[in-house]
């Protein structure tokens, strides 16, 4: 199999239980879009120093081509915390809306 | 932070905490309630936010059955300013009021006495203030259709004189932010 660069990243912190669902959602959507799993890099953020270094706004964070699928407010502090996502139906959730992920994959394919 | 906390059958610890309504609220003292729900929550955690409406619905739905509901925020406001008493009060005002008191546990003595681990973490006491259920409101923070089913089942059981089944589930959410 040819080497494939990871251009999809899941950054997670074990203090937030939703990261496993985020990983499952990523797997499902990548399969649906025909994206090789080799393109996914899963990165555990273990301490505040790593969070600062990577500009981690909370868990889970999904980057596609280095871009957050639901960009946080510029004033959002970085650190070990659980992210608050807003679903497209207005609900607050510990997980991003799958539509945000699909849109990010669609942009990647263009 | 290591906390011992309550186990099923234990008596509710005595606490008096200030609420966003400007009053001090007593917990663990005999009153006329048929059951008491005490749950830990906060302003910044997505799990607590996702479950909050379901918990408010329980408060409204069981009010006329003699159930008292209390929400407590014990998070360290220095590391999490969104959980300061001022921020709690502002949130309740913005949301047009809550159906039950929202209390500030600034010293974190309440969270330690109960053994609260997460937001949310729900404790159900019977009329004698013995713990009968502890854990999550329901099985899925992401599914509002779950409608706090575990909490409702526990309350129905307590009000009917039965043992809740399950009596314990694992709280799911953000850890309490200790000082």
Overall description:
The complex is a heterodimer of chains A (110) and B (179). Chain A has three helices and six strands. Chain A is of the alpha+beta class. Chain A has one domain (8-92). In chain A, helix 1 (19-32) packs across helix 3 (98-109). The longest helix of chain A is centred in the first third of the chain and has 14 residues, at 19-32. Chain B is of the alpha/beta class and 179 residues long. Chain B has one domain: Glutaredoxin (3-Layer(aba) Sandwich). Helix content of chain B is 25%, strand content 22%. Chain B is built from four helices and nine strands; from the N terminus they run E-E-E-H-E-H-E-H-E-E-E-H-E. Chain B has a five-stranded mixed sheet with strand order 5-4-3-7-8. In chain B, strands 1-2 form a two-stranded antiparallel sheet. A two-stranded antiparallel ribbon of chain B has the order 6-9. The longest helix of chain B is centred in the first third of the chain and has 17 residues, at 46-62. The radius of gyration of chain B is 15 Å and the shape is globular. The A-B interface holds A 15-18, 21, 81-85, 91-95 and B 44-47, 49-50, 141-142, 144, 172-175.
Short characterization:
Helices cover 30% and strands 18% of the residues of chain A.
Q: Under CATH, the topology of chain B is which?
A: Glutaredoxin
Query: Could you list the spans of chain A in which at least 5 consecutive residues all have pLDDT below 50?
Result: none
| CATH-defined architecture of chain B | 3-Layer(aba) Sandwich
Number of domain units of chain B: 1
Write down the overall mean pLDDT of chain A.
92
Shape of chain B: globular
Oligomer: heterodimer
Instruction: Please count the helical segments of chain B.
Output: 4
Helicity of chain A, as a percent range? 25-40%
Domains of chain A, number = 1
Task: List the chains of the largest interface with their residue counts.
Answer: A-B, 15 and 13 residues
Structural class of chain A: alpha+beta
Number of strands of chain B: 9
Q: Report low-confidence residues of chain B grouped into runs of 5 or more.
A: none
Helicity range of chain B:
10-25%
Q: What gyration radius of chain A follows from the Cα positions, in whole Å?
A: 14 Å
What is the element string of chain A, with H for helices and E for strands? EHEHEEEEH
The tally of helices of chain A reads 3
- Order of adjacent strands in the largest pleated sheet of chain B: 5-4-3-7-8
């Amino acid at each position: 199999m040819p080497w494939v660069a990871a251009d999809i990243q899941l950054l997670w912190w074990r203090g937030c239980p939703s990261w496993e669902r985020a990983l499952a959602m990523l797997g499902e959507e990548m399969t649906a879009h025909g994206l090789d799993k080799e393109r996914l890099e899963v990165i555990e953020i273990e301490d505040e120093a790593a969070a600062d270094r990577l500009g981690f706004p909370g868990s889970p964070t999904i980057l596609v081509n280095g871009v957050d699928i639901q960009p946080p407010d510029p004033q959002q502090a970085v650190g070990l915390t659980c992210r608050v996502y807003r679903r497209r139906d207005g609900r607050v959730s510990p997980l991003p809306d799958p539509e945000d992920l699909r849109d990010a994959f669609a942009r990647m394919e263009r | 932070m290591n906390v011992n906390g309550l186990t099923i059958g234990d008596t509710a610890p005595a606490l008096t905490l200030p609420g966003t309504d400007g009053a001090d609220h007593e917990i663990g003292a005999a009153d006329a309630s048929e059951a008491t729900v005490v749950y830990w929550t906060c302003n910044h955690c997505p799990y607590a936010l996702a479950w909050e409406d379901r918990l408010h619905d329980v408060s409204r739905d069981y009010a006329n059955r003699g159930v008292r509901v209390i929400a407590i925020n014990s998070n360290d406001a220095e590391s999490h300013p969104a959980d300061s008493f001022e921020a709690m009060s502002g949130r309740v005002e913005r949301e047009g009021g809550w159906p039950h008191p929202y209390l500030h546990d600034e010293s974190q003595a309440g969270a330690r006495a109960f053994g609260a681990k997460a937001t949310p973490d729900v404790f159900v006491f019977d009329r004698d203030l013995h713990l009968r259920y502890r854990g999550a409101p329901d099985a899925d923070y992401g599914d509002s259709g779950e409608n706090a089913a575990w909490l409702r089942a526990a309350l129905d059981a307590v009000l009917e004189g039965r043992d809740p089944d399950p009596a314990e589930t694992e709280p799911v959410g953000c850890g309490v932010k200790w000082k």
